[in-house]
Structure formats: structure tokens, C-alpha cells
Amino acid sequence: MQSRGVVTVFYDGLCVLCSREIDHYRNQMGADALRFVDITNVQFDAQREGVDPFLVHKVMHAKTADGQLRTEVDAFIAIWEQLPRYHFAARLASHAWLRPILDLGYQGFARIRPWLPRRDRKGCEQSPYCETKSPRTSPL
Fold this sequence. Notes:
By secondary structure, the chain is of the alpha+beta class. It contains 5 helices and 4 strands. The protein has a 4-stranded mixed β-sheet with strand order 2-1-3-4, covered by helices on one side. α3 (73-82) runs antiparallel to α4 (87-93). The longest helix is centred in the last third of the chain and has 14 residues, at 99-112.
């Protein structure tokens, strides 16, 4: 179980559901090992953070202390590995028999996330990446 160093968590601060989940994680024991970055904040710089500016708005991203970029369910596992209360969830989510189900569920969520209730859009209106489609072909 990885739990050394800080994991950077990239999240959509305009998504009400996403923000609630992040607030929950912030209040857990071990949250000091997580750095939360709101990708809709005008200060967010994808290049400086080393993430694709389009893809980070489509799926969950986390960067481990050693610089490994994890996306989708792997990003949640990286978060859960840092929170003692969620170590069991991290181990469970890594099982080969459950993983395809979690991946499918996450991909479904990622497709509908843009239509979930949003907070005030002011934070994202200056970003050329929010709610836009990547010029590259994307799996979503």
C-alpha cells in the first residue's frame, strides 16, 4: 500500500458532487498527504502541473509523489491509498475481477459529469479548456 509523499489531486471545483467528495477527503485522517488543485480556478496552469489541459477536464487525475500520473479509477486508488479509512477500498478496487466494473462505472460518470449541477461558472470562463472538446480523439 503506497502512502509516502504527497499526491496531487486535480478536481473540478465547479462540479457540486465532485467538490463535496473532495471536501470529504479533506476532512479525513491522512489528508495532509493530499494536495488539492481546482482545475477550474483561473490560477490553474496545466502545463506547470504536467497534465494535459483538455484531458484533465474530462477525467479525474492524480499525480503521485514520484510524478506518476494516474487517471480515472487509478486516480481514486491513489487518493484512497493515502487515507487510512480508505485503504480497504484501494485494495478492493485493485482486484482484477472488480476493476472492469469500476472502470465502466467511472467512464459512465465521466460522460454525464458535464451535465451535473454546477457552481457559479466565473472560475472557468477565462479558461480555454473548460467544457471544451479536445482537438485530439478522446475515448470519452
